[in-house]
Design a protein that fits this description.
The structure is a single chain. By secondary structure, the protein is mainly alpha-helical. The chain has a domain of about 80 residues. It contains 4 helices and 2 strands. Strand 1 and strand 2 form a beta hairpin. Helix 2 runs antiparallel to helix 3. The longest helix is centred in the first third of the chain and has 52 residues. The chain starts with a helix and ends in a 15-residue tail after the last strand.
Amino acid sequence: MTEYQMTMTDAFASTLAEETKDEVIARLEKQAIELRSNLTSMTSNWEYSRDRASQMLNKIKDFTNYLKEHVASEEIDLDIAQCYAGIFDIVLTKKYDVSVTVTFSGTVDVPLNMDEDSIPNNVSFSFDEGWSDGLEWDMTENDIDWDIQEAY
């Protein structure tokens, strides 16, 4: 501990020793009230900022929908709409529901002691999800049917 810290610690200790129990309690209550007031103020400011941010995000979403609707009705040129959307770093998109049926067939070499019922648990395949040529997709497996025949 430095000499300054020792001096400050001694000064603080002597101040506390000079205070009566009631004075200490009064000082601590005053500090608690001040801290509670600061916390209330900070919470209120945070809630206000959160609400304003939410309102702004909703306005941007409404603006994006406005642009999409007016491009679809050809009231606004796509290039102009994209320019406005770019101000907010928004990529104008539209959604399509897509259903794809994929058939995979092939021959799988398995150990002689493997039962055909265990093949589906040991064979897997996957599709990449993400962006491709400006398209974003998210796929889920709805149904997989297995037809397994022994090959010779």
